């Protein structure tokens, strides 16, 4: 018997299949995936999947939030548990298994059809909202009492991407009153910061409304500006400038978003009964943007490469501020339905912060795709005879000279 982290709690039995982008499976099945990405979410929506087991995935990943929109539309949800390594579940593939509401996974030898519990009491529904383990690495130099931080050791960046990111990240650190940090790229493609905030410091800032709100409001204003600028005609230099600005508000809410949502879960548990917390959290973790992606089958690749052959991401027909108004009104209506107006009015500032945070977190990924896919498209048109592999080895300043557009920002 295996134990897992419960995110969408219910019971299900079925044949365990491994996800391999195989859209020919038409029999009900339980799906094993490395992570719940948006393409996996749409596979689940369009195929007879009755349960999901993932090796890892944030409980607030974009794929999960699209599924939450789907569940709201159909009035029920499927099982999802996480934290199960492929090595541990390999011997269960293509066999009948059962996932219990508490996350236990075991063989299930006899059943006629895949079954999913329909009598799970909402009062007993409980999800394990746990932040994923932080990946940042710190190197100390005892001789001169200095340190270097790599926030993303699992990512490898090319020279072109780094040359743009660095300009924005220098601006980002200035918001923390840090003006003497060096940002370097090592041979493995890892980005290292000197004299930068520890991830624990960023986490503490992110969950504190007083310190976080000014950063959050700045990020919202910037995202609206980026969207408006992309609707207009823009030069390659302008597009590059927008990517720089995107990274100028990048750090605080990047690897800390789960911590903020866990904080929201704790807060809701302090003011609501358990029978309401699950519903309130699932309402918090969807927005107009997720619903738009769900309704239009918009799949965004998990990979966040500056250069890729991914098709140009469509611009949402509404702004992030429209999304915020939509989500605040929806949350207010939920509180009225639950007869919780007094709690809503008493804690309005905190509710607004969590809603603002989640909506901004969802837009961050989409803004990334809006910028990166357009950058790739422009590069392909301007440098049709060079491969991405060759282009990635050049800095943005070298690229600008080739394209013959001046870029005034300095690294």
Tell me the layout of helices and strands.
Layout lengths: L4 E4 L3 E7 L10 E5 L4 H9 L2 E6 L7 H13 L4 E4 L3 H4 L6 E4 L5 E3 L7 E2 L20 E5 L4 E5 L8 H17 L7 E3 L5 E4 L4 H9 L1 H23 L4 H12 L9 H15 L2 H11 L3 H8 L24 H18 L3 H6 L1 H35 L5 H4 L4 H8 L8
Structure description:
The structure is a single chain. The protein has 411 residues and is an alpha+beta fold. It folds into 2 domains: 5-124, Phosphohistidine domain (Glucose Oxidase, domain 1, 3-Layer(bba) Sandwich), CATH 3.50.30.10; 199-403, no CATH class. The chain has helices at residues 38-46, 62-74, 86-89, 159-175, 199-207, 209-231, 236-247, 257-271, 274-284, 288-295, 320-337, 341-346, 348-382, 388-391, 396-403, and strands spanning 5-8, 12-18, 29-33, 49-54, 79-82, 96-99, 105-107, 115-116, 137-141, 146-150, 183-185, 191-194. The strands form 2 sheets. Strands 1, 2, 3, 4, 5, 6, 7 and 8 form an 8-stranded mixed beta sheet that branches. β9 and β10 form a beta hairpin. The radius of gyration is 23 Å and the shape is globular. The chain starts with a strand and ends in an 8-residue tail after the last helix.
């Amino acid at each position: 018997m295996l134990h897992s982290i419960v995110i969408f709690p219910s019971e299900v039995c079925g044949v365990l299949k491994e996800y391999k982008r195989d859209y020919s499976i038409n029999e009900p099945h339980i799906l094993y995936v490395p992570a719940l990405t948006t393409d996996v979410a749409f596979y689940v929506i369009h195929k007879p999947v009755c349960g999901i087991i993932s090796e890892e995935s944030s409980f607030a990943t974009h794929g999960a939030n699209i599924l939450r929109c789907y569940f709201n539309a159909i009035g029920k949800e499927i099982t999802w548990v996480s934290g199960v390594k492929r090595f541990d579940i390999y011997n269960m593939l293509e066999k009948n298994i059962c996932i219990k509401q508490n996350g236990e996974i075991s063989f299930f030898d006899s059943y006629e059809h895949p079954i999913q519990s329909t009598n799970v009491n909402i009062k007993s529904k409980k999800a394990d909202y746990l932040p994923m383990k932080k990946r940042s690495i710190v190197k100390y130099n005892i001789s001169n009492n200095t340190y270097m931080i790599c926030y993303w050791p699992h990512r490898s960046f090319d020279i072109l991407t780094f040359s743009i990111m660095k300009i924005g990240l220098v601006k980002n650190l200035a918001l923390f009153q840090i003006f003497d940090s060096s940002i370097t790229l090592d041979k493995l493609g890892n980005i290292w910061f000197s004299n930068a905030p520890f991830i624990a410091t960023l986490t503490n800032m992110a969950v504190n409304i007083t310190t976080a709100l000014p950063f959050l409001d700045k990020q919202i204003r910037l995202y609206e500006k980026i969207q408006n600028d992309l609707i207009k005609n823009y030069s390659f230099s302008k597009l590059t400038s927008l990517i720089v600005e995107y990274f100028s508000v990048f750090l605080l809410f990047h690897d800390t978003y789960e911590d903020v949502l866990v904080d929201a879960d704790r807060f809701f548990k302090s003011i609501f009964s358990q029978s309401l917390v699950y519903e309130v959290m699932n309402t918090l973790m969807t927005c107009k943007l997720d619903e738009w992606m769900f309704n239009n089958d918009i799949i965004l690749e998990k990979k966040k490469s500056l250069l890729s052959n991914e098709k140009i991401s469509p611009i949402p027909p509404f702004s992030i501020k429209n999304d915020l108004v939509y989500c605040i009104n929806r949350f207010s209506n939920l509180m009225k339905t639950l007869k919780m107006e007094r709690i809503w009015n008493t804690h309005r500032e905190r509710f607004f912060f969590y809603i603002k945070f989640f909506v901004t977190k969802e837009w961050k990924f989409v803004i990334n795709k809006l910028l990166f896919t357009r950058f790739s498209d422009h590069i392909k048109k301007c440098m049709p005879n060079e491969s991405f592999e060759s282009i990635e080895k050049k800095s943005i300043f070298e690229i600008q000279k080739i394209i013959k557009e001046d870029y005034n920002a300095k690294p």
